[in-house]
Amino acid sequence: MAEMSDSNLEKPTIIQQAMASCCGAIITSLLVSPLDVIKTRLQAQSNPFPKGKCFVYSSGLMDHICVCENGNSKAWYKKPGNFKGTLDAFVKIIRIEGIKSLWSGLPPTLIMALPNAIIYFTLYDQLREALKYRLKKGDEYIPVLAGSLSRFSSLTVVSPLELIRTRMQHRKLSYKQLYLCVSTQVAADGWFSLWRGWSSTVLRDIPFSAMYWYNYERFKKMMCKQVGAHEPTFLIAFTSGAASGSIAAVITQPFDVVKTHRQTALWESETLEIPQRDSPSTWAVMRKVVASNGITGLFAGIIPRLCKVAPACAIMISTYEYGKSFFSHLNEKMNQRP
């Protein structure tokens, strides 16, 4: 009993887990978001975004809908650039616009992405430990349940805040105007209107999280066993995160295509003031995509998504595990003090 008590004391506290996930989220977004900035600039160069057009911007932690401003706007995605490819865009943006331009659009999205990551990772660890204690045995599918529940919770908390952020960015509203806008919408359509677009995100992210955590825990355990380690090294966590993230991304790609279609259509109907009809179901959107582009249409954009998801998953989980390990050793040293 004393050994168990000591072991629990050495584990990171919930505050320490939140701090580790926050640090991991900041590092991930700083390293991954430049890839999406370059992708968006290349898209805008080949097919300029008209006013009211929506596109998906990824901070490396979550996807955000961005609404294009008017044609005379000096928005970062409208800056001219004669790019010949990804590497050329990377070099020219740094040389002509300065290195800070690689993180264009990141600050406002971090306001949503950081709480999302903190809730998700901290809750996953808390649920996994609680389920292990309750079930005692047969823990093979605990990561699936803990991952699904933690993702469901983080999406449910952040989804209305992200909708409000997008509306504020699009309409350039003051906080007073934003309050009036939201209260009018709630009065007209009810509280559930704040979760518009939530269902399509859930259909993609919950299967992704279930597969990601199941494979991550298996790969981590297998690699730790091979090298004789009691806890994952940075490299083990990085490799396991990249592999499990890639597998989950490929399998859930059709739901990512559907999510992008539904959410951009939803916001474009609002920004262009097109009367909204009933939103088509997930299966209706899938049938439409298959009818237009064949079955391969459901896997459109898989390579760019893998190039973003694999490093994001690897960096986030390895920095998070490193942070937890740091706090565990810190707690151990504190406990050993007389």
TrEMBL record:
Principal location: mitochondrion
Ranges of the Solcar repeats in the UniProt entry: 12-130, 138-222, 232-326
Pfam families reported for this sequence: Mito_carr
Coiled-coil intervals, chain numbering: none
Membrane spanning stretches: 14-32, 102-121
Superkingdom classification of source: Eukaryota
GO annotation terms (biological process): mitochondrial transmembrane transport
Record's subcellular location: Mitochondrion inner membrane
Membrane topology label: Multi-pass membrane protein
Catalytic activity: glutathione(in) = glutathione(out)
GO cellular component, as recorded: mitochondrial inner membrane
Keywords: Membrane, Mitochondrion, Mitochondrion inner membrane, Repeat, Transmembrane, Transmembrane helix, Transport
Similarity comment text for this entry: Belongs to the mitochondrial carrier (TC 2.A.29) family.
Identification of the protein by name: Mitochondrial glutathione transporter SLC25A40
Organism from which the protein derives: Pipra filicauda
Gene: SLC25A40
